[in-house]
Amino acid sequence: MKVLVSGASEGIGLAVCKKFLQQNFEVVGLDVQSASINHMNYTHFVCDVRGALPDVDGVNVVITSAGVQLPDEDTIDVNLKGTINVVEKYALQPNIKSVVTIASSSARNGAEFPMYSASKGGVVAYTKNVALRLAKYGATANSVSPGGVKTASNAPVMNDQKLWQAVLDESLLGKWAEPEEIADFVYFLSVVNKSMTGEDILIDNGEMLKSNFIWDTSRL
To answer: Is residue 155 part of a domain?
Structure first.
């Protein structure tokens, strides 16, 4: 099968490409940066997901991972409009088997830049719309919402000992996910899964559940 991945040159997108190549899939990557992979089954296109996209025939799986974390309107254009552009270009055809979009835990709790949270919330809603339209092909469409992931884009937090400890303390498991862990979920949703569609999977080490029950224990 042929898999198309946007945001293929680093972070989660790169991990996804490597996962599918390990499983002997043909992979096509899109990114504004040059290729980070040299593999006989990998083809790379340097392009911006907001603009004109290359023609690629016979795509069976679409994974959208291109994204930015910025406090301005570019975030909406890349994260949401870019996702829509890629999916509409490659997924809405009879060869499609599955679509997985990369959203964020911020889509649920709003805990980041306003434009970023809105863009990822839009990705989740858009993916449900895609699930409705792909059903006639027997294909699935789901989103993955990671919490903290150890990628280069998060280096400003990861490289500051005080900030790093603060973010780790926000999760139940006291850690962030590796990109390869997210890639495993993406692989399951797009290849193994046959029956779940229109859903969003939260992968945040329990951060969303983190809460402290405040009570006067002397009254117990």
So the answer is: no
